Amino acid sequence: MTPRLPTPVAIDGPASSGKSTVALELCARIGYLFFDTGILYRAVAAAALQRGVAVADESAVSALTRKLDISVLAPTVADGRTNTVLVDGADFTPLLRTAQVDASVSVVAAYTQVRQHLTEQMRAVARQGPVVMVGRDIGTVVIPDAPLKIFLDASAAERARRRHAENVARAEPSDLAQILAGIHERDQRDRARATAPLQAAPDAHVLDSTNLTRGEVVAEMQRLLQAAASQPAQSPAPYSISTAARVFRAIAVPSVRIMYYILSRPHVHGLENVPAHGPYLITANHLSYYDPPCLLVMWPYLVEAVGASDMMTDGGFMSRMINGYSTLPVHREVIDAGLFRTALNVLKSGRALYIAPEGARNPAGLGAGKPGAAYLALKANVPIVPVAITGTNRIFPELRSGRRQKVEMVIGAPYRLPVLPPAQRRAALPECTHMIMQRIAALLPPGLRGVYA
Predict the structure, then answer these.
(1) Which of 40, 56, 354, 441 could cross-link with 449 by S-S, CB 3.0 to 4.6 Å?
(2) In sequence order, what are the residues at sequence separation of 6 or more whose Cβ sits closer than 8 angstroms to the Cβ of residue 145?
(3) Looking at the domain assignment, is residue 1 inside a domain?
(4) Are residues 189 and 266 in the same domain?
(5) What is the pLDDT of residues 278-308, one digit of tens each?
(6) For residue 231, how many other CB atoms are within 10 A of its CB?
(7) Are residues 273 and 415 both part of a single domain?
(8) Do residues 108 and 49 make contact, with C-beta atoms less than 8 angstroms apart?
(9) Residues 357 and 425 grouped into a single domain
(10) 4 belongs to a structural domain
């Protein structure tokens, strides 16, 4: 019996790497739907232009995106299109490659709420049947559980040469130097953005096509498909960190702990509430940048941590510390299935995991909780240890006045969320999130309880 080919297939890569060209040929050979996810952003840009919505107005474009009914189908007209795209029932396909849309799509694609909404639509397409999905964050954010992920790359010079050759073949004006400069600019923008940056998934097959023909690339993709089809599904390996991260922690944790005692007056209450071993979830308020390192170095055992991905890419001191510790990156305002999968693996491996449910700093007091912590606790059925941290936002202002700020970390008693069947968990997320935040608020002074006062 011939093994069933895996679906969905994720193909990522930088601009002009030939993703769409080879994916189209691959789909023709194996009978899969071709889905260039970039056309969704083009559809939003086209709709905004048609309806007089200013593309530069992020809130207006985001609101429009939520109202649009976008469908992606196999080609319904033999005019060279790769998909038929319907917007509120109208065929928008001819509008997607206009010069106006070309100039607007990168602006639209940078809006966080637009990306979040369209990511859910992409996942819906992935569930409909055999499909090859092409984009820049398919294997890392959109469908991180895809059974086959390919990252198609090529040198910037080769990508520029190919684009230039295509333009010349179509008798269009073309400047190779300008194309190369544009590719470098697009690469930098895609790789540096805080939300869903361009990068290969850890388990992706990286395929450099610089010196390969189109036929050779497609043949290699088919080989990868057959290899994936013949391999049985495997459970993820127990979570582990690199040797470099272990060495970093061994040096940094005691060093930063000493720094806290030099710069402030730390007091830890409730150490008796810390479980003797994992797995468990640590949830804490987020008053300042210095809360996470305070908790990590004052906790009696090493724990894993979740941190915002945009804090890991600015190249500053805090960025280097977060990366060195091997913090799990979360993309703000994006439902990151890959993160949840890794976080669950951390807990299943018997470790403790620290997460700030607010998802952002709230210096004025406790902010509204996001459902991520509740989702993890319900899914993994682990205890939750609530923590309140105060004083970290005053460390350096007090030092400038010649005083050492008192920093307090209060550890509450562990508790568990109700055990619920999978079908009931989603509906219970708001209530469970409220419970998590109330437990943290109970440990804070009244003036810092914020929306949970």
Answers:
(1) 441
(2) 337, 341
(3) no
(4) no
(5) 899 999 999 998 999 999 999 998 999 988 7
(6) 10
(7) yes
(8) no
(9) yes
(10) no
- Residue 414 domain-assigned (yes or no): yes
Least Cα distance to 210 among 253, 283, 160, 272 occurs for 160
Q: How far is CA 194 from CA 15, 182, 289, 305, in A?
A: 18, 20, 17, 19
Residue 183: both structure tokens together: 């590719």
**CATH classification of the domain holding 302:** 3.40.1130
**Residue 1 pLDDT > 50:** no
For residue 343, what is the enclosing H or E element? helix 337-348
Confidence of residue 233 (pLDDT cuts 50, 70, 90): low
CB within 8 A of 415, min separation 6: which ones? 383, 384, 386, 439
Tokens standing for residue 162: 């190919």
Helix (H) or strand (E) holding 387: strand 384-390
Q: What DSSP state is assigned to residue 140?
A: I
Are residues 352 and 328 both part of a single domain? yes
Predicted confidence (pLDDT) at residue 189 exceeds the cutoff of 90: no
**Residue 410 token pair:** 């209060």
Number of compact structural domains in the chain = 2
| Residue 254: Cβ within 10 Å count | 11
Does pLDDT of 4 surpass 50? Answer: yes
pLDDT at 312: 57
| Cβ density class 385-417: b for 16+ within 10 Å, e for less | bbbbbbbbbbbeebeeeeeebebbbbbbebeeb
Are 396 and 277 found together in one domain?
Answer: yes
| End residue of a domain, out of 229, 260, 276 | 229
* CB neighbours of residue 78 within 10 Å: 6
Task: Tell me which residue range forms the domain holding 426.
Answer: 243-452
Q: Which long-range contacts (CB under 8 A, 24 or more apart) does 186-192 make?
A: 186/14, 186/15, 186/106, 187/14, 187/15, 187/156, 189/106, 190/14, 190/15, 190/136, 192/313
Q: Same domain, yes or no, for 176 and 261?
A: no
Are 183 and 305 contained in the same domain?
Answer: no
Using DSSP bridges, classify how beta strands 205-208 and 148-153 pair: parallel, antiparallel or unpaired: parallel
Q: Dump pLDDT digits (tens) for 263-276.
A: 999 999 999 999 88
The C-alpha angle with vertex 67 and arms to 61 and 69, in degrees rounded to 5, equals 115
| Pair 219, 365 in one domain | no
Residue 102 lies in a domain: yes
| Contacts of 184 by beta carbon, 8 Å cutoff, 6+ apart | 156
CATH code, domain carrying 209: 3.40.50.300
One DSSP character per residue, 240-269 reads ---HHHHHHHHHHHHHHHHHHHHHEEEEEE
Separation CA 105–CA 229 (nearest Å): 36
Q: State the Cα–Cα distance between residues 221 and 78, nearest whole angstrom.
A: 26
Q: Is the confidence at residue 2, as pLDDT, over 60?
A: no
Model confidence at 327: pLDDT above 90: no
